[in-house]
Amino acid sequence: MPVDTIEAYNAAQEPSDRAICERIMALIGAHLAGAERKMWHAHPVWFLDGNPIVGYGKLKSCVRLMFWSGQTFDAAGLTPTGTFKAAEKRYTDADQIDANELKAWLADGARIQWDYKNIYKRKGRLERLV
């Protein structure tokens, strides 16, 4: 059954994964002021001006935190993923989440963005926004 809110998504997870999701959600909410948040492609995602910045989702063995422009961030600690500019961090326990590290990534996410909102219009070509 699909969930329609981030809170419902988190509540549907096993207790250890729920703790990870709730901690990530709280940190994003505290450090990405003004972002729109919604379920997008069945996962919690935060947007600035319609552009996806950060989201997370349950994988088989972990919870993956993903930043759409993360490969170009100044702060270290993310692993490249996919064919564009995205990078990720995977967690198996809420205690692995370093609040300062996540805060730095969120600051970079607000400051360094690629235009994912218009990627289809540009036929898969990304342009740097900020």
Description:
The chain is an alpha+beta fold. Helices cover about 30% and strands about 25% of the residues. The protein has a single domain, classed as Aspartate Aminotransferase, domain 1 (Alpha-Beta Complex), CATH 3.90.1150. Strands 1-2-3-4-6-5 form a six-stranded antiparallel sheet, with helices on one face. Helix 2 packs across helix 3. The longest helix has 17 residues. About 30% of the residues are buried. The model has no long low-confidence stretch (mean pLDDT about 90).
How do the strands and helices of this protein lay out in sequence?
Blueprint: H1 6-11, H2 15-31, E1 36-40, E2 43-48, E3 51-58, E4 63-67, E5 79-80, E6 87-91, H3 99-111
Antiparallel strand pairs: 1-2, 2-3, 3-4, 4-6, 5-6
Helix pairs in contact: 2-3
Which key phrases capture this entry?
130 residues; globular; six-stranded antiparallel sheet; alpha+beta; Aspartate Aminotransferase, domain 1
Largest sheet features: 6 strands, antiparallel
- Secondary-structure element series: HHEEEEEEH
Provide the residue-averaged pLDDT: 91
- For the terminal residues, how far apart are their CA atoms? 38 Å
Spans of at least 5 consecutive residues whose pLDDT stays below 50 are none
Percent helix range: 25-40%
Examine the coordinates and then state which fold CATH places here, giving the name of the CATH topology. Answer: Aspartate Aminotransferase, domain 1
Taken as a percent bin, the fraction of beta residues is 15-25%
